[in-house]
Design goal:
The complex is a heterodimer. By secondary structure, chain A is mostly beta strands. Chain A has strands at 5-7, 10-13, 19-24, 31-37, 44-50, 53-57, 64-68, 73-78, 87-95, 100-103, 107-111. Chain A contains no helices and eleven strands. Chain A starts with a strand and ends with a strand. In chain B, the strands form two sheets. In chain B, strands 2, 4, 5, 9, 10 and 11 form a six-stranded mixed β-sheet that branches. Chain B is globular and about 45 Å long. Classes of the chains: A mainly beta, B mainly beta. Chain A binds chain B through residues 2, 4, 31, 33, 35, 40-45, 48, 50, 55-56, 58, 90, 92, 98-106, 108, and chain B through 32, 34, 36, 41-46, 49, 89, 91, 93, 97, 99-106.
Chain lengths: 112, 113
C-alpha cells in the first residue's frame, strides 16, 4: 500500500451538481497532485499543491479547484459537473527525497 | 505538437519471454521519465525513474533505457510471469514545469501461461 487514501471510492452525481473529493497524503509529503483518468487513457494532470499553495495547473477550467491542508489532506472540488467529468480521479503525494509519486486508489465519479 | 505515445494498446507475451514496451515523445524536454504499473480499478504504482543523463536503470527483472536523441524509452520485463499482466504507463517530468507530469495512454500487457 502507498499510504495515500481517497474518499469516497465511488460517487454518482447529476449534471450541474458540485462534488468534493478528498485525499490523505503520506505524512511528510508536502506536495500533492490531482489527476483525471478517463477509461483507457493515462492520467491527465489537473493541478498540484505544495505547502497549501497551488504550484502548477494543467489544461482544466476554473470550475476545477483545490485545497491543501496542513495535516497532509487535500480536496478537489468540481463545480457545474458535466457528463465528460465522469472519470477516475487520482491524487498522488510526492516524496521530495526521491521524486517518487505515490498514488491513492482513486475515486470513480459518474455524472448522469 | 507535443505528444507522448506508447507502442500499442495491448501486448501479448508468452510466459518466460521478455516483454518490451516503448514510449516515444515529441517536442518535450523531459528532466526525467518514470514508468508505472496500473491494475484495473487501482491507482498507478511507481516502478522506475530514469534521468536524462542516465542511459539505463535496472530493478530486479525490470530494465529501463532512455535515449534523449531518439526521444524514446524502452521498458523491459525479463522472465515475464502472468502476475506481470497489467497496464504500464510512462510519464515525463518536464524541465519547463517540474510540477507537471505528462502520462502516456499506457500499454496493456498480458502474459499467457
Amino acid at each position: 500500500e502507498t499510504g495515500v487514501t481517497q474518499s469516497p471510492t465511488h460517487l454518482i452525481k447529476t449534471r450541474g451538481q458540485q462534488v468534493t473529493l478528498r485525499c490523505s497524503s503520506q505524512s511528510g509529503h508536502n506536495t500533492v497532485s490531482w489527476y483525471q483518468q478517463a477509461l483507457g487513457q493515462g492520467p491527465q494532470f489537473i493541478f498540484q499543491y505544495y505547502r497549501e499553495e497551488e504550484n502548477g495547473r494543467g489544461n482544466f477550467p476554473p470550475r476545477f479547484s483545490g485545497l491543501q491542508f496542513p495535516n497532509y489532506s487535500s480536496e478537489l472540488n468540481v463545480n457545474a459537473l458535466e457528463l465528460d467529468d465522469s472519470a477516475l480521479y487520482l491524487c498522488a503525494s510526492t516524496s521530495e527525497r526521491t521524486d517518487t509519486q505515490y498514488f491513492g486508489p482513486g475515486t470513480r465519479l459518474t455524472v448522469l | 505538437s507535443q505528444k507522448i505515445e506508447q507502442n500499442s494498446e495491448a501486448l501479448n507475451i508468452q510466459e518466460g519471454k521478455t516483454a518490451t514496451l516503448t514510449c516515444n515523445y515529441t517536442n518535450y524536454s523531459p528532466a526525467y521519465l518514470q514508468w508505472y504499473r496500473q491494475d484495473p480499478g487501482r491507482g498507478p504504482v511507481f516502478l522506475l525513474l530514469i534521468r536524462e543523463n542516465e542511459k539505463e536503470k535496472r530493478k530486479e527483472r525490470l530494465k529501463v533505457t532512455f535515449d534523449t536523441t531518439l526521444k524514446q524509452s524502452l521498458f523491459h520485463i525479463t522472465a515475464s510471469q502472468p502476475a506481470d499482466s497489467a497496464t504500464y504507463l510512462c510519464a515525463l517530468v518536464l524541465y519547463s514545469s517540474a510540477s507537471k507530469i505528462i502520462f502516456g495512454s499506457g500499454t496493456r500487457l498480458s502474459i499467457r501461461p
